[in-house]
């Protein structure tokens, strides 16, 4: 069989998110470079070590560098699209361990289809557009290369680049036909966004399956490569090409046992917003045929779909709901179970641990028991219950695609049990304190076995079991990976098991004591004992996990204390048992925490004060309450917001080093302390928030270069009536003054300190040169009265806002660069910045044309001509009838114009057209009316 369990152990997806399944529980990966809206794929080797990952356009190697021959923005990318549901799918090459296929699927965009065969985007009439309609700034190539590329495949050779791999130059972006070549509309789109892969008819073959309109296309890969002639199955439903950019989305998945297909047709674009569906099919892995369509849901908006690891349950996400069907039910459609999960448009993908994971924002939500039914599936978005914290990164919509059969060839070599029941297989084992552990799995009938360490054959290890221990030349902690391949004597395919072994030592712990001032009973924060417990390890408390138990029996029954931050003792000097686990090695040890209640009367009260400057200008700041120790002769132990809580030791403040006051500007906090084992002091801690001078915003000042070298004066934004309340320091020049004079562009920084409180604020003042504007004028003329101009300031000079005037450098000026309703004439255009410097001037000429003339010899409008020509301006004018026949041609300057005749004959009342070539190169065209 092609697959080993470790191939899916690393996931990279979403917005730089990742998960590693070599740990238990799985942990976040934060080193990924991939940022995708939807589709992606990742592949690891048999021992779970990352090989490469992709968003369908760019491929990153195991060191997170881009493969040179797969760099989309470098011009060498693949033809997928991160906005495609399954933009990429990585498939091993049978019997070629160093070769991998990358199948890519483009997003079939309607504005690319409009332009076909040319590059999009284009409107529905085929006219080019600057951006796609999906969002502002959506251009080529940032969001799309302008073509609908359909399904393609490339080959990665891992022997290239010294084992880092690269896409093979002459085996890249090979196109596969997944559409009816006789139908032009299908050629425009080429494919949906759906792709899946599953085991083929034997142990060394794979089916890669796509869907488009009403047909499935199944391509067989074997040791000879890919057969580019697909097996085509035409089955319902038919997904129309109207609004196909939206109709194409949604996942396609094969069941792990290769007997079923599940498809989600989203159809999200109006008017098809609620006409999507989920279908189940039979799949014949011997022939590649798809048959027996069954509607599971109709008139819905599905997206993610998945099978349970045992192939007996089906799942789908629709809007905010999770759906499940029992595929062994008498009526599968009616077995529908619905659960609200609060996550919209979510992908589903089961992992190496037998759980199904769901994209969900900053966390990866989980179905813990996907082989169960209904509420028993145990869906959760809680980190404490199995969801995965992505440590600041996000899932977006998609999750990585894998060959589904990877998850159907697993055995548990840690517990020695074949996958069954809940399909949860352990892949991580901790071996502590130099002991040994036996890994293995014995097949039920005859088989041969081979063990590997980190992907390398272990010579002579051909038994079903392997005893492991810390190698003699290594020191704990030490990690390695063991893999067992099982080759049944029957025709069944290879099975594989993986154990990520961590050799470590039990942490050396100290017992700890927690003391409280109270009368008989008190509330203890058990977390406060963590540092003392692990002091001997030389590590931080954050390197360990802690569970507290009331006694040994509770530890054995795994019943930890739940209220660990507010635990009430039941006797004085009560002993609590704590189990401490190393996060790195998972080795654990136990220690004791003694709870001591000191019963004493308060003998003294002391009052101290902490102050902070109000950097937020709202009266709230963070305080380190522990600093109160510097103001007293003793060390405060516990802090409270109410005096009653302090006297009774209830509701302690837990975040003492980052406490934010809850009452603006001032708040009283209370504390208790021990002196020589006595609870003799109650403290009052007053928190004061002092006003800052100001929360300054950066400031810009413009310097008119024509005034150089005369200086200008700059100063911070302090009100004039408060200038003397502050001290000033200019950092660059070491000047202590309210204002300084400058004549050079730069960023000047001034520190403003309030004399009364010492609170400080910094303001950056940027002095920028502003010079005479460089601008162009767009003239829209040709009318007798309704001409206009637009003034365009060159971007390089656009350092400030400009204002505009006509004919008078003194104005009036206006903010708008547009002037309307201008009569034909010569105009002076003036542009200046709003700092009243750098006036620029340009002369323009607006030429108009008479809209009608009446050649009846009454001395009024007897001839037609251009109007507004300057004395030094010329124009060559041609007049045409409505059939385009040239009637007259003349020079407008010095010529009275056209008198309405042609070859001495009077022309009739009608509209006539003109073309005028001006001496500045512009051409005016339009029409006018002859009236007699």
From TrEMBL:
Look up the domain of life of the source.
Answer: Bacteria
Query: InterPro entries, alphabetically?
Result: T9SS_type_B, WD40/YVTN_repeat-like_dom_sf
Q: Name one Pfam family in it.
A: CHU_C
* Protein name in the entry: Gliding motility-associated C-terminal domain-containing protein
